[in-house]
Amino acid sequence: MKKILMTPGPVELHPRVRKAMSRQVISHRSTEFHQLIESMIENARKIFRTNGDIFILTSSGTLAVECALANLLEPGDTVLVPVYG
């Protein structure tokens, strides 16, 4: 009988995902990586039906939160920062 994880994490991975994750790591400064990001941006434009700018952050979620706040806030704004993890 196959066991199924029913916890918040770790999660079950589809075999296709496991196969993709087993590929050789590429440098974030390589031509291959640049082409991959460009392809992802074009696909995201199709999904979101936009010709606007798409930004893919190759970072942790913390940077994404920081980027969002940096674009929403002005110098001198008052901010409440709760502990969230």
Shape: extended
- Strand percent estimate: under 5%
Number of helices: 3
Sheet having the most strands: none
Averaged pLDDT, please? 90
Return the structural class: mainly alpha
Termini separation comes to: 36 Å
Give the helix proportion (percent range). Answer: 40-55%
Q: Work out the radius of gyration.
A: 18 Å
N to C succession of SSEs: HHH
Unreliable runs: none
Q: How many E strands?
A: 0
Q: Characteristics of this structure?
A:
85 residues; mainly alpha; 3 helices
What does this molecule look like?
The protein is mostly helical and 85 residues long. The chain has a domain of 46 residues. Helices cover 44% and strands 0% of the residues. It contains 3 helices and no strands. The radius of gyration is 18 Å and the shape is extended.
Secondary-structure blueprint:
Elements lengths: L14 H7 L9 H18 L12 H12 L13
